[in-house]
Amino acid sequence: MERLTFDEFLDARTEFEADVQATPNISHFCSSPGWIVPALLEISEFDPAETSCLIVRDGNSWLVFAENRPGYWYPFESAWLFQNPLIGPKAVELLAAAKREFLGENPQGFVIGGVQNETEFHENLKLLPGAIHFDEFPATDCMVADLTNGVDSFLAGRSKKFRRSIRMARDRCSEVKIEEAALDFERMMAIQKRTRKWQDGSDIFHHDDCSRFYRRMIADFGDRLLFRVAKIDGKDAAFLLGSVFGETFRGLQMSFADEFRPLGIGNFLQIDTMRHVFEHERVTSYDLGMFSEYKERWADETKEFLGCFLVL
Fold it and tell me: Helix count (H) and strand count (E) of the chain?
C-alpha cells in the first residue's frame, strides 16, 4: 500500500486508466484521469499546494480523494458525482486500511460517487466493517443506448414515430456533409452560441468553470476525442463531441444552430455518429450521459448511480 502525491498520480495515469477500464459497474470515462483531473482543477479549483489528497495504490486497486474541508474527503469530480473514487477489485477494503494507516484514529467522512445501485460493490460498501455511519443518496444517472448488434438492431427497438423522425431527418439532411475535424474549442463554441440553450441563457458554457473544465479536458484527451461537425453549404451547422473508452462511446456534447432545427439535424448527426462508432470502433454501448427528456427516446437503459457518505 502506497500513498501518492498529486504529481505522482499524474505520472501514473496510464496505469490508473487501465485499472479504471477493468473495474466493473462504474462510469469508466468519468472515472478516468482525463475527466477527473480537469474537474478537480477547474470546477473544484483545487490547489495542490493548499489541499490534501488521499491517493493510495495497492496493486491494481486505488483510492482517489481530495480533502474538501478538514476530515471530509470527496472524489476529484464532485460536481456531478459521476466519478467512483474507489477503483479495482479490493478498493473497498483498501479504503478502511488506508484510513487507519494514513489518517489516524479520528473519524473521517468519505463521499463516494458513481456507485451503481444493487451491485456487489454497493453491497460491500454498505457492509464495510468498522464503518461508524453509512448513508446514500441519488447521484447522476446515466442513459445508455445498446449498440451490441449494431444501429439497425437499435432502430428496430424504437417506436414507429422515432424511426419515422430519423428517416425524415435523413431525407432533409441529404446535402449535409459530416467532417471529422481536429478539435477546436473556439470552433465548437461558435456553433454553441447559435443554439437555443445559449440564447435562452441555460447553456452550461455560460458558467466559466464549465468552460475552463472543457478546455482542459480537451487538452488532456487530445485526439482521443471525436469531434464531428455537420456542415451545410460549407458552413458549420452542428457538432457532436465524445470519446471511445473501451467498448463504450461516451457522448459529451451535441449541439446545433437553432436555425437548422426544422431539418432534424441533431437526429441526423446522432444516428450517423452511432453508426460510425459501431462500424469503425466496434463499440457496444453509447453512453448518452445524464438524464434529459429527449434522451429517453434514444436510451435502452438508465443506469441508476448513487452517492454514498461513509464515516470511518
Answer: 11, 15
User: Strand, coil or helix: what is 267?
Assistant: helix
Distance CA 178, CA 271 (A): 12
- The partner residues of 178 in beta bridges, in order of sequence, read 230
Which domains can be identified in the chain, with CATH numbers?
2-141+304-311 (3.40.630), 143-289 (3.40.630.30)
Q: Is-contact 95 63, C-beta < 8 A? A: yes
Nearest to 278 by CA among 167, 181, 152: 152
User: CA angle, 302 as apex, 297 and 305 as ends, to 5°?
Assistant: 150
Three cell numbers, residue 52: 490534501
Which residues, 6+ apart, have CB-to-CB distance to 14 below 8 Å? Answer: none
Q: CA–CA distance from 310 to each of 111, 113, 130, 200 (Å)? A: 7, 11, 10, 40
Strand, coil or helix: what is 45? Answer: coil
* Consecutive H or E run containing 177: strand 177-180
pTM, entire model? 0.93
Of 44, 42, 50, 40, which Cα lies nearest the Cα of 9? 40
pLDDT in tens, 231-282: 999 999 999 999 999 899 999 999 999 999 999 999 999 999 999 999 999 9
Q: Could you tell me if 81 and 43 are in contact, meaning their C-beta atoms sit under 8 angstroms apart?
A: no
DSSP H helical segments within 224-295, as ranges? 265-281
d(CA 236, CA 197): 17
Instruction: Report the distance separating Cα 167 and Cα 264, nearest Å.
Output: 10
Q: How far apart are CA 70 and CA 68, in angstroms?
A: 7
Give 185-204 pLDDT, tens digit per residue: 999 999 999 999 999 999 99
Is the pLDDT at 132 greater than 80? The verdict is: yes
